Amino acid sequence: MKKTGLGRGLDVLLPESNDLENAVSMIAITEIDRNPEQPRREFDEEGLQALSESIRQAGVLQPLLVVEKMGRYQIVAGERRFRAARLAGLDNVPCIIRDFTPQEQMEAALIENIQREDLNPMEEAAAVRQLIDACHYTQEQAAKRLGKSRPALANLLRLLSLPKKVQEYVTQGKLTAGHARVLAGLDNEDLQLGLAEITIREGLSVRALEKLAAQPAPVPKEKPAPRPLPLELQDMENRLQSTLGIRTKIQGNRKHGKIILQYFNEDELERLYQCMEMLEGR
Prior knowledge:
Number of helices: 13
Strand content: 5-15%
Low-confidence stretches: 1-9
Oligomer: single chain
Strand order of the largest sheet: 1-5-3-4-2
Order of helices and strands: HEEHEEHEHHHHHHHHHEEH
Distance between the termini: 107 Å
Mean pLDDT: 83
Helix content: 40-55%
Radius of gyration: 34 Å
Structural class: alpha/beta
Largest sheet: 5 strands, mixed
């Protein structure tokens, strides 16, 4: 009987444990094709080698999920196991044959990708977003498919709104999913990045980051507008700049202040030096 819902992950696609043995068929590996719509494009070669060695020792412990197409079989879930079985030199692999629509195949492949144990939080969030977009689900529907609460799913998806640099920190393991959720709750990107870098530098716990993030942001003090120069000082500033031939600025008043001379190349510095010699009477 055809199942239409995926319920909590892939579990409901498999028969009950007492019926599993009868539902599994051994299929020649040469009769099985990869799914061209497989959402997972990268397979770690080192991990595949390790899995293939395990398969050589104990066989394929979890059956592949396949659909029958024109006398052959296409993988719905289990491509990593399939690749490892080929590396191990197996002739046949255990499979469970199901009848799925194209959307159900995509959904099953995406869910298997999401349920991988080696996904970091950013990869998981991106995979969930792909599931929602590909299958046109609401967050509520996706949460039911994955056996998650809607708030938990929403919090996961919010990680995708973090600045790219912060997302990289999460991917690299410098920040945990807990840290990322705290930062995702902030509106200011500069604040998110600043707190992320403080967390990494000081090794803050999630709780410590929460306390830091809850502190009100300091209000920058406005610098008072500079008072305009008296007319005679403005005239003096212009005359000095004209005479010396370099940028000149006077700050202060008639009683105290400073004169700032700026040069931007060797010619301007040489001109200033010549003016000094003229003042010294050389």
